[in-house]
Amino acid sequence: MTKKTNYKHHKKLLPNSILSYLRDHKIEIFEKMETPHVLIFPCPAQGHVNTMLKLAELLLIQNLHITFLNTEYIHNRLTSLNEDVKSLSQFYPKLQFKTISDFQNKEKHPGFGENIVDVISSINMYGKPSLTDIIVSEKISCIILDGAFGDLATDLAHEFGIQLIHFRTVAASSVWLYFCMPKLLECNEIPIRGISETALRILIIIFFFFFLISPNFLI
After folding, report:
1. Total domain count for the chain?
2. What is the pLDDT of residue 4?
3. Residue 176 in domain
4. Which one of 13, 40, 55, 174 is least enclosed by Cβ atoms within 10 Å?
C-alpha cells in the first residue's frame, strides 16, 4: 500500500537553518549567477526522497531553480506510484528531475531495504563523473546532499567553487545520538556490557533502521 504525500504550500515550514544559511551566503553563492540553481540529491531510499522533496518544494517557493536528482530505480518507483510527484514539475516550472545510475544489476536490484548500504557505496565509488556532468551542464550553484552520502560531493564543490550543504533527513534526536557516539565510546559505555552478541546485533540493526531508513518510509 502506498502512502501519498499531500504537498501544501506553506512558506513558514521552510527549515530556518537552511533558509538562513542560503540567505547569509547569498552573495557568495548566487550573485555570480542570474538564477540560483540548487541540486538536491537524496539517499536512494523512499523516506529520504520524500523528505527532500518537501524541502525542494519549500525552496521553490523561494523562487530558486531546483534540479532533483534520483537514482533511476527510485525515480521509476516514485513516478509510477505517486501521482503528486508527476504534477510537481508542471506546477513548478523551475523544478526538473534528473536521474543517475546506482551501478546495480537491474535484473537483481537490491532495492532500498537492508542492502541500501551497498547502493550508497556504489554511488560513492562510481558516481562522481555523473555528478560532475550535471553540475557543469545545469550550471549548479549549490548542492544539498543527503548526509548519508558522506563526502561524495566535497571535492566537486571545492573544484567548482560552489556551496555544499549536508542535509540529514532523520529526526533531531537521531542526529544528537549520532554525535554522542564518540563520547559514549570514550567513556567506555559502548560496547554495552552484560548483553549477548545476538542481542547486540539486533540493537545495531534497529539503530541503523531508525537512523538511515525510517523517516516517512513510504511515499
Report:
1. 1
2. 42
3. no
4. 13
> Degrees (nearest 5) of the Cα angle 147, 152, 155?
125
Report pTM.
Answer: 0.68
- pLDDT value of residue 213: 45
Residue 78 near residue 30 (C-beta atoms within 8 A): no
Q: Note whether residue 144 is domain-resident.
A: yes
Asked about 118 being catalytic, the answer comes back as no
- Sequence-ordered list of residues with C-beta below 8 angstroms from that of 61, at least 6 positions apart, any chain: 9, 11, 14
In the set 48, 65, 75, 102, the catalytic residue is 48
- Would you state the pLDDT for residue 61? 92
Rounded to whole angstroms, the Cα distance separating 75 from 13 reads 25
b/e map 58-89, b = 16+ CB within 10 Å: bbbeeebbbbbbbbebbbebbeeebeebeebe
Q: What is the CATH number of the domain that holds 142?
A: 3.40.50.2000
Instruction: Give the domain range for residue 166.
Output: 11-171
> Residue 48 catalytic?
yes
197 assigned to some structural domain: no
List 37, 65, 102, 146, catalytic entry: 146
Torsions phi, psi for 143 (to 5 deg): -115, 130
Note the pLDDT of residue 36: 85
List CB contacts of 151: < 8 A, sequence separation 6 or more: none
Neighbouring CB atoms inside 10 A of 50's CB total 21
Q: Specify the pLDDT at position 99.
A: 93
Sites in the chain below the pLDDT cut of 70: 1-34, 105-114, 191-192, 194-195, 197, 200-219
- Measured distance CA(192)–CA(162) in Å, rounded: 42
